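User: two proteins, same treatment. go.

Assistant:
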Amino acid sequence: MKKKSHLLLFIYCIFLSTIALSKDIKISMNEFCPYHCTELDGGWDKEYPGYAYEIYDEIYSSAGYDFKAIQNPFHRGMQSANTGNVDAISGPIKIKSKHESEIKIRQNKNTGTIYSQLIYSKEPISLYHSSCFFGKSDMKWNYKGIQSILSYKTAVVKDFDYGDILNRFIEVETSKKSSPRVQLMFGKDIQLRNFKMLMSGRVDLVLADLQVGLYTINKMEKKQQLKKGSLKLLGCTEEGQRHLYVGFSPKRPKSSRLLAQLFDQGIVRLRSSGKLKLILDKYGLDDWALEN
């Protein structure tokens, strides 16, 4: 009986030590395929959850963490990272100047100040080309400066960076009570909703990241939500090409610096081992380090 009691005590101690050693990491992500992808029911896509999702899972699971992807619109994810409700947010840009910081604050007073407070990874998670225009396949149009879009209504995403010139244009237009030129979008399934508005004629242009736009159109065509060849890429501006990073919570600086270091080391390891290429190949993408 004594031996049995000792055995039960030993098992219980192992159980407690396992709980003590278990670590969670919560990363906020918006629906932004192919970075982070959801299914029609709103849950993460089980087969193709997104290449950034798979990278985080690989890096932090290998380091002994229980990775949890928390689905939030981008602006809410920024707030959650700032307050410490999540450990990090996927995909913010690094603010490089006071001018950029002022623009972000004007764009969104609630999240603009957070950019300078986050603890960032040194390694990027992507090379982002936000300033790409999409339209109907029969549209003959090229971007030639702001004057060329004044006669059209363009769908854009709240809090996203499109480069100085387009940022200023969007800021002026969205400050109006009702803009005939800009449709500001936020919430879930933004790109899907944007392209549906484009097809229905509610907007004339969609401004989107190159990868996101092409991937969304291809996915909609495969699911027969869109007739093949009905939408196309009209072109991209020279602005809006920036690296995206992982922004860790300033509420737990010591823990955040450790998590950032693990991410940086993990990206280097995945790249050298060839695992990063395998993940990106699955989504038809190239390593952003090769795109510079």
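Protein 2:
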Amino acid sequence: MAVSGNVGIYTPPKPEESVYSEERHPVVIIPMSVKAAQGILERGTIVGKDSNGLIVPYNPNATITLSDGTTAPAPEATPVGVLVERIDTDRETTGNVLVHGVVFRERLIRVDATVDVNDLDNLAKIGIWNIG
């Protein structure tokens, strides 16, 4: 969502371009702050939040090192939603994220790998179901 004075206005994409379906279940889309300097994040990207609470690509393999030297899942290892439009993180600070509803499986993107059944299960745990 390019911010040009119309903050908070969201225009849904054409159905054939949309990552979500409202035919089966209403969707909930909310604007969220995005981490800067990540380049382009495409519509359909599964996202998580970093340790600062900013939107970043979901990465279920991300870990953090704890003070005792052990590792634990990083915050972005848990999905929080799916981007509903392409954003340029070098120019935009907010992205619209679907946090509840039905998405088209074939339109989902994982930046580091192909979306698999574990990713779909993780989305279902937060109320995002897939069809397709």
